[in-house]
Amino acid sequence: MALASVSATSLAQDYCRRAPLMAPLPVEAQAMRTAAGLFQQAAYAQPDGTPAETQVCPDGSVILVTETCPVPPPPPPPPPAPMAESDGDGADSIVVTGSSVTGYSPGALTRRERRGMRGQGNGPPAGLLTSGDHDDLLNPEHFAWFVHSKRSLGQQISVLPLLDTRRSLTVELRDDRGQPRALERVTLECADGNRLELATASDGRVVFFPELDRLSERLVIHAGSEKREIRLAGGRGGQQHRLVIGGAPAPVRAMDLMVVLDCTGSMGDEIAFLKSELREILVDLKRRHPQLDLRVGLVAYRDIGDDFVTRTYRLSSDLDALQASIAQQRGHGGGDMPEAVDEALARAVEQDWRPEAVKSLMLVADAPPHDDKMGRAWAAAEAARAKGIRIVPVASSGLDDRAEYFMRLSAALTQSRYVFLTDDSGIGNRHKEPEIACYVVTSLASTIRRVLDSQLTGRRLEPREGEVIRVNGDYDQGRCGLPPKVRPVPPPPWGVAD
User: Fold this and answer.
1) Position 364 in a domain
2) Helix (H/G/I), strand (E/B), else coil: 367
3) Which tens digits make up the pLDDT trace of 392-415?
4) Left if phi > 0, otherwise alpha if psi is -120 to 50, otherwise beta: which for 383?
5) Nearest-angstrom CA–CA distance, 484 and 459
6) β-bridge partners, 257
7) Within a 13 Å sphere around the CA of 346, how many CA atoms are in the beta-carbon half?
8) Are residues 350 and 285 part of one domain?
9) Each residue of 424-456: pLDDT tens digit?
10) End-to-end CA distance of the chain
11) Strand partners, 100
12) Dist CA 281 CA 38 (whole Å)
């Protein structure tokens, strides 16, 4: 089995391994803004720079003559009939691993909606997508068990990425008042003189992985004017170093968000959610942070052989333009399980991300990359990490083990959280039960709000009491108790040749 993260040649020669270069992408139509403020597709060019034959669609987009114009979105459904009032109140409760705990209310539901749900448990009303989220960096032993349990995937995937979170090096930057220094560069200098540079997240922390990053035993940390020589501890476990940098840090007032959206036939519910909910989520984020300079873009993708592979709408501060771009998308094509995840991620990563902005990439998908493209997809995830982009997977219906594996590794690699849809809403296709020991279920809108807000502020936000629909497992501020089946597992076989 070959590993995406290590090659035998470079292992023998170099420490402080950097992210590999992404493979060149085929030419794609670039998105531009019209005078009306909406997005449309710019003219294509052949690889040699000559124009390609295009057609203008009814929505104003320009595509290749070999592609099919997007179908206009259907009209919105009529509003639901008002729910009859009834008297009396029943006890609200949530389920915690089979037991009932009183005192909680279903998330984001009105009193009338709760009354109308009597006799149906604490499920949300029809049409509401529900989800949980998980931070694998807070649960390294659980994550190691998950990775170990999926080692058989290496028999079908020629380049299987690996990430061991049980051994990590965290560098934390603070100012002289103890406040985190966000988006500042931290450089590790290895014993052979090679250097690896990454940026801190909004909490002032950056995480290195000694095996993946191929760190030498002796290192020098450089941050601002500070310098510290350290020695990596042996064995498993997290190692943390805090450096104090004088002076006030620059406030975080900008955020770039790229939505990478699977537009194949099985993604109808998720596309409909983004059409109806995403703009309000972003408006709410700006309402909570009035000084926020927010830009949002979109990469819609399907698969090779479909009417298009990727369509990119560049980062823009115009939320109406984003909404118009999403409104053009529909679920169609696909057929087999894997999709063009590698190309879609690479398109998103190569956008013009601002160095002073919090950078988030939300991957909404229900399928993995093709097995022979897994290495390319992992290279895109590593390139995202090198740019300080946090990947937020939103695992949708019909997920398989390969997709969960890739999504969770990508989230952990980029210091992010894994979001997954649940069956609590009772709508759409069945959703894969994640191999996660504990989580809290809320509405999907609530989960995305909290994850994006946490990335912006650097503070982990837990759901409010009224947002909780269900709690699964031994949950404590994102950390899970160790169930009996989780045992120490041997370290992965790092260093296998490509």
Assistant:
1) yes
2) coil
3) 999 987 788 999 999 999 999 999
4) alpha
5) 31
6) 296, 360
7) 23
8) yes
9) 877 666 777 889 999 999 999 999 999 999 999
10) 8
11) 95
12) 20
Picking from 244, 271, 288, the residue at the C-terminal end of a domain is 244
**Same domain membership, residue 225 and residue 271:** no
Beta bridge partners of 260: 299, 363
Domain contains 125: no
- Closest by CA to 192, choosing from 228, 227, 216, 221, is 216
Residues 198 and 340 in one domain: no
Within this chain, do residues 172 and 308 fall inside the same structural domain, yes or no?
A: no
Is residue 360 scored above 90 in pLDDT? yes
Two tokens at 207? 């995480």
- Angle, helix 140-149 to helix 401-413, in steps of 10 degrees: 140
CATH value at residue 324? 3.40.50.410
Q: Which of 410, 452, 393 is nearest to 257 (CA)?
A: 452
CATH of residue 201:
2.60.40.1120
> Domain tally for the chain?
2
Does 419 reside within a domain? yes
Distance CA 45, CA 30 (A): 10
What does R_g of the chain's alpha carbons equal in angstroms?
Answer: 23
Query: What single-letter DSSP state applies at residue 465?
Result: G
Q: What is the rounded distance in angstroms from the CA atom of residue 484 to the CA atom of residue 463?
A: 27
The CA distance from 261 to 301, in Å, is: 6
* Last-in-domain residue among 190, 218, 244: 244
pLDDT tens per residue, range 285-333: 999 999 999 999 999 999 988 888 999 999 999 999 888 888 888 876 6
Q: Give me 281's structure tokens.
A: 């989520």
Residue 230: band (very low, low, confident or very high) from pLDDT cuts 50, 70, 90: very high
Pairing of strands 130-134, 439-443: antiparallel
Question: What Cα–Cα distance (Å) separates residue 496 from each residue in 15, 159, 391?
Answer: 16, 11, 27
Contacts of 13 (CB under 8 A, 6+ apart): none
286 and 401 housed in the same domain: yes
pLDDT single digits (tens) 162-190: 899 999 999 999 999 999 999 999 999 99
What is the per-residue burial (b if ≥16 Cβ within 10 Å, else e) of 422-456?
A: bbbbeebeebbebebbbbbbbbbbbbbbbbbbbbb
Task: To the nearest 10°, report the CA torsion of 85, 90, 92, 98.
Answer: -130
Distance (Å, whole) CA 411 – CA 389: 10
Domain shared by 210 and 342, yes or no: no
Q: Residue for token digits 């014993």? A: 191
Helix/strand/coil for 411: helix
- Percentages (nearest 5) of helix, strand, coil residues in the chain: 25, 25, 50
Q: What gap in Å lies between CA 347 and CA 299, rounded to an integer?
A: 7
Tell which residue, 414, 261, 308, 303, has the closest CA to residue 63.
Answer: 308
Distance from CA of residue 422 to its chain's centroid?
17
Tell whether 229 and 375 lie within a shared domain.
Answer: no
Q: How far apart are CA 139 and CA 161, in angstroms?
A: 19
The answer to whether residues 348 and 220 belong to one domain is no
Domain assignment of residue 255, yes or no: yes
Q: In terms of residue numbers, what domain contains 257?
A: 130-159+251-480
